[in-house]
Specification:
Layout lengths: L1 H59 L5 H32 L8 H27 L11 H16 L5 H10 L9 H20 L7 H24 L2 H23 L14 H18 L5 H10 L7 H23 L4 H29 L5 H31 L23 H36 L1
Length: about 475
Amino acid sequence: KMADLCMFTFEKNIAFKKAHKIEVAAELIKLNSEIKDLKKKASLEQATILEALKEEKLKTRKPISTKTLVLISVISLPLLIIGTLLINYLLYFPKTRNESFDLTKKEYLIAFIIVLITLIVIIGYFILMLKVVKKTYMDREKNIFKITAIGFVGSFLDTIGVGSFAVATAGLKATKIVKNDALLPGTINIGLGIPNLIAGTIFVAAINVEVLTLVLLVVGAILGSFVGAKLTKRISAKHISLTMAIVLAIVAILMILTQLNVLPSGNKTGLEGWQLGLAFILFMVYGGLQAFGIGLYAPALATIALLGMDIKVAFPIMTLASGSAFPVAAYSYYKNNKYQPKTGFGLMLGGALGVVLAFLTVFVGIEVGLDVKPDVFTNYLKWLAVIVVFYVAIMLLLSYLKIRKKPNANNLTTRKIIFSPESYDQWNEKLVNQLDDYLLAYYDKRQFYNDLLNKSLGKETKTWK
């Protein structure tokens, strides 16, 4: 009996220990889970605090003054343009063409006149940029060095035929310099206009394309740019994101076809009849797309090739059409205040430097100095650009989906909000947050109209004085 009792007690003790172990293990798992949750919460709070501190630091940091930016641009731009044109006409052109620049020849004379007109446009554009720089307080906390670097890389790649719009958009989105997609087209058009015009003056040394074709396609791009800039004023941020995403994906496909030499190439230097009319309409569309922040080069190149023109004449057409369309769109965005001033000015400074350095290193240094064709390595950069374009398209599509989920402030008046002592329980956190979004949207819109009113009053005051 004693042995049985001892055995029973022993077994009971073992069972109790097992149960206790299971209970302790469950408690430890629970505690471990709680510790992980607390750590995650603490890290999120810490990240939020650090982000807030960084933003506060950026706001308190003294930015480069407007006078300094103006001084840098006034000194650097003329030096860059004059120096590059001298190198182009005295060194690059004679080496690559095996003849000197002769103004008695028709193609050279037309090109020189176009260059002079472009230089006048650059001066007018720069006067506009001096007005833009006065508004840099609107995005004063943005890092000018990051912006300049994005402009430099974009325009450097653009000069060697890769394209700048997708690269600049990717850079501005990745660094969160431009958070509102509605401001992207205006910022890019204002910022990259002068760099594109400088590239036009460099590469339009001789015109081998028929003048009527060139003029009509350039005019088409200008008209399209004007209409496109007007349309962006009436389209919401989410629809701009969606439009840019879809068209960029199409542009990427056209770039792939160009790289694979799928597009045919003829030997015509001009168009006539229905082909000229079709090209004019298409270039209007491309000018409008450029106003939306989508590069003109890829679709323009595809059109020129498909219509049987020589690919060699595509570059002056694309350069002039793109450069001429910029000022029209830029002025429209400037009037509507749909851009970030400091960001646009920084893109201009970096872009101008990028164009000049690309020309000096790739075309003068490598092509002339080392006698190596740039196509050897630019081909790889163009494939990289295709990846960047797809990446930007995906980013903008995700941005559209994100904006789409937000409550629409325009529907505020159509919703019935019941607030009474009997319905306190219905006011949960989600509803309060939704109401906050509505009110913020309302105040943003009210501020926008206040700014317009103050601007109008300012004009009236100046007129009266």
